[in-house]
């Protein structure tokens, strides 16, 4: 006899008050006979289909309450129970629920996979039990000083373990399965109380909510679902800020608690702030409403800072001002707000905004260029050719502004976590795919500039070769197939990402190296030994990737060496 099926069918017609008692007794006998564990029972419950469930919603709820709280929760772990640990019960239930969502039996393949949780009765009912038990955990006491609060950790622990198990495979099937798993994690997260994203402060410590687990989940997983605007979706953004205000309003100083958390976002999870900027028109009314229920004063200063960034971006779009006021700090927040405003503006308004940038701080321009690069790659990854052309024009205009300010822009394409400021922030904002495709953006932009202006950039040759080799590797791996570049840069597509052709119209990148960069220029800018040393790693990388490029670089290296020897002979 299968619990929840034959047992439910036998007793579903019973209307007497003793129905649940009889059901519990029979279920107890079944457990003794089959040694049913908590996980086994959950699996059977999750397999119940709507047409096979003869229990009413109330009867099913009574049955679940008895099985969970009177049988499996107090039962020892040795016999398949939870030893009275409600968090363990939640973790096992969550694991079983996600297994069911990944199963082909849990939803119709014609449906949106993101809706798998509600696609059958078993999933819906068991998820309701998870919501109830998490609500019970929410009422738990504050952790004593010296003990780490564990509330909410079980959720992200299960997510992390399951996603890591799918991280090794590089085939398309595994990638799609992992993406489906991540979407399931997100939907479960949205179905649970938003305060679960935050842990209670320890007893005796300042009442500042901690959300380190959520920050890690965003940076490591949700970031790679942000295909546009370096921002999370509206639902998860609102969920976070609801949880933030709920957690802060329970502290002794809600404004301070909110400020400390949002300040931590600047360095630990900037994606939360760019998401708030993107969804601010929808988010701001709810934030004001919730805050006014506690205080008649203004929003906390860090939320006001987001408002100021929005006002700054709007001021640049305004026809009433020719010169914009200085951008409020931090610069990357104002740059993100400006990038979003430019993307939404009309083309003629965009031109006017960009004409006002020369008076802004260099840091703002650098961050704005970085955001425009991400916008360019997002446009390349989408089929709308008009969006791609406009994004490229905008990016080139900002790059031209950097050139006029003599900002060394080529190095912006070689960012690492060691680069304080822009490098670390951008790597926490952009999806991994966008970072890998930076070489495509680099060569898309070169067609906008004259060769002489490019060669004046000190690091240009090194960066150009590095980008070419990386682009070649992307091509071999098949990743460049997802990039759709604008029509006016078709010449670059035909050359597999080679720089703009030199004057002799040579069609190969090695020839471009050999004819475009004069020996004297290379020597003067490279300072001899320094230039040779910086090219050594590229030569090593290019030998297998592109022998022709490696040979061209060796030729230029020898040319510089000969110039050095000639000069030394003249001096002696």
From TrEMBL:
Q: Name one Pfam family in it.
A: FANCA_CTD
Cross-referenced InterPro entries? FANCA, Fanconi_A_C
Q: Give the record's GO CC terms.
A: Fanconi anaemia nuclear complex
A Gene Ontology annotation in the biological process aspect, one of them, is: regulation of regulatory T cell differentiation
| Residue numbers spanned by region Disordered | 490-510
Q: Fetch the PANTHER family from UniProt.
A: FANCONI ANEMIA GROUP A PROTEIN
**What region holds the Fanconi anaemia group A protein C-terminal domain?**
333-524
Name of the protein? Fanconi anemia group A protein
